[in-house]
Specification:
The chain is α+β, with helices and mostly antiparallel strands. The protein has a single domain, classed as 2-Layer Sandwich (Alpha-Beta Plaits), CATH 3.30.70. Helices cover about 40% and strands about 25% of the residues. A hairpin with a 4-residue loop joins β1 and β2. α1 packs across α2.
Length: about 140
Amino acid sequence: MELKNKTKQYNSTNFMVYSCQYHVIFCPKYRRSVLINDIAFRLNEIIYDICKEIKCNVIEIEVMPDHVHLLLDVDPKFGIHKTVSIIKGKSSHILREEFPSLKKRLPTLWTRSKFISSVGSVSLEVVKQYILEQKGK
């Protein structure tokens, strides 16, 4: 179930309401420019399919030749690390099966590293101030 605020959407389960967005970036091994044409198009489809399967919302996606940007809304019980690991693992397996040229060029499709940053609707300072002011109330 989704609850809408003027600027932000919230998801809910029986026991929790949440809004956890993350900016994620990951790259092919050796930062090779292999995410082009049919591979890029297929990767886009695969990521949407995986996210639908694990109940993760893709807010935005951009596949560049040598890296991928994702903006995801993730259930905090499932977790962002697990989400990204599944996306990278399954997409690598599928793409390397469907595009054998990737197996020839790279020992694995993705590097082990990734960039993950939480995205909030207010600044860290606003949250800190809110927490500090709670004792006074």
